[in-house]
Amino acid sequence: MPDKRKEKIGLLLGVVGVICFSLTLPATSIAVPYFGTTIVGLGRAVIAGIIVAIVLLVRKERLPSARQFKSLMIVSFGAVLGFPLLTSWAMTSLPVSHGAVELALLPLATAGFAIFRAGERPSLKFWLSSVIGAIAVIIYASYLGLGQLHMADLALLAAVLILGLSYAEGGQLSKELGSWQVIAWAILIAGPFFIIPVFLSFTADMLQAPATAWLSLFYLAVVSQFLAYVAWYGGMAMGGIARVSQIQYVQPFLMILFATLFLNESITSFTVVVAMIVVLSVIVGKNTTVKQKESKPVPSKAINE
């Protein structure tokens, strides 16, 4: 597949992944009051684990190598344990709009880890556009009165760093293992360890939760925890980790839009202006040069799957 076409498909997959991820905080905000942090944060991995176990068995996928297993542990720690648990806890006390602006720093974290893990060397123009996007969301955060950091804020910032590392590691590993296989194995590695705490946290009262709460929980398990990562890791493998990560700058504003639609949170003209600045930085950033160290050819099967 020609490089330009592969990059376009990678960017398209990145857009699909970001749209799916943008519903994660709103869905978490809906589910947490009824199921609690443990069920929402870890239970989604248990549900997703059942699904991916069936898929892996039906497809008779080969086991990852020892080296790949080490990378999968990093992905699992960030995408399956750290991020879901930290954001679920933070959403017990923060509105979606609050969390959205802090998660907007995720592309910078991802690009930063990509430098060390994937050997990518973004240009100065890339970093300038990233900094402009980050400054825009920080100004927006200050506008919302986020001047003081609380424990929930620290949890979200930790989630950004942990997931940034996971994204960079998963995007690199997807080139050789396959995009959906990366998140599938990561879920399968961590999921069984969550069964006991999830079981102990479940109460009979949770069975009375409304349909919206159950729908949100299953969205988090099937889409946010699995299908969104399939698109996202596939996009980074084909379009480049640093470049595709720039698409995430529109994620906080998609989150705010969905929060407005589903949670009745308000959206202001200032939000629209900042969104336009951030989107512009994404457009500039994704069109910049990102050099990469030469690596061994990757089998086409791993990329296409």
Which key features would you list for this structure?
305 residues; mainly alpha; two-stranded antiparallel sheet; 79% helix; disordered C terminus; AA-Vitamin_Transporters; EmrE-like; transmembrane helix; EamA_dom; membrane
In short:
By secondary structure, this protein is an all-alpha fold.
Plain-language structure description:
- This protein is an all-alpha fold and 305 residues long.
- The chain has one domain.
- Helices cover 79% and strands 2% of the residues.
- It has 13 helices and two strands, in the order H-H-H-H-H-E-H-H-H-H-H-H-H-E-H.
- The protein has helices at 3-22, 24-59, 66-90, 96-103, 106-117, 124-143, 151-177, 179-201, 211-239, 241-245, 251-263, 269-286, 300-304; strands at residues 120-122, 290-292.
- A two-stranded antiparallel sheet has the order 1-2.
- The model is unreliable at 300-305 (pLDDT under 50).
- It is a multi-pass membrane protein.
- Belongs to the EamA transporter family.
- Keywords: Membrane, Transmembrane, Transmembrane helix.
- It is found in: Endomembrane system.
The description of the largest β-sheet is: 2 strands, antiparallel
Number of structural units classed as domains: 1
- Give the CA-CA distance, first to last residue: 14 Å
Question: What share of residues are in beta strands?
Answer: under 5%
Q: How many distinct beta strands?
A: 2
SSE pattern, N- to C-terminal = HHHHHEHHHHHHHEH
**Helical amount:** over 70%
Low-confidence stretches: 300-305
Outline type: globular
Mean pLDDT: 83
Structural category is mainly alpha
Radius of gyration, in Å, reads 19 Å
The number of helical elements comes to 13
Spatial strand order of the main sheet: 1-2
Protein name: DMT family transporter
Pfam families: EamA
Subcellular location: Endomembrane system
Family: Belongs to the EamA transporter family.
